[in-house]
Task: structure prediction
Amino acid sequence: DAGVIQSPRHEVTEMGQEVTLRCKPISGHDYLFWYRQTMMRGLELLIYFNNNVPIDDSGMPEDRFSAKMPNASFSTLKIQPSEPRDSAVYFCASSSTSLYSYEQYFGPGTRLTVT
Amino acid sequence: AQSVTQLGSHVSVSEGALVLLRCNYSSSVPPYLFWYVQYPNQGLQLLLKYTSAATLVKGINGFEAEFKKSETSFHLTKPSAHMSDAAEYFCAVSDRTGGFKTIFGAGTRLFVKA
Result:
């Protein structure tokens, strides 16, 4: 099992540019989560999907952030335009109804730096 | 509403000493409880979980945790610390009736001294 795959692993961009983060969940998992981790705010849930449908996006900081899941094996998190305060590590995680106990499997993260 | 409180943002122990990381939760319904570990530059990985079976739960790398409903606690322990245990540890809670949304604590960084 390849685990959750995220790309890129590192992204450096200038303020105002569009940034797209990508995630491939574990095959067969029907839940997908996007988190942001910073020193100041810890681990924050941004949005999660069930069967490709967004269930809760209350953690998305503002309209500059958007997430999509066009199919069961791919999701994107887009920031447009990016700002320095968006600098963080972004994690994707997946889970499965069949697990019953809701544990999540995390990807390695994308470290985003906005200058 | 659910919440998780981890007592102590940093814990330092000597190699071979007992590890104790504290976690208290709040949940209006019987919870699922988890401990995750994060090594530098990696994602979180599941250490152990409580799902209403045995209250003493054993996980990977010699860690265990005990669910105490009366104290609303789920503290993580390991009898003898190893240098490789140095990492950040997160306690988390899920509401079984609320789907898969999981609330994570702020994390506790464990330092292990030689």
Summary: Chain B has a mean pLDDT of 92.
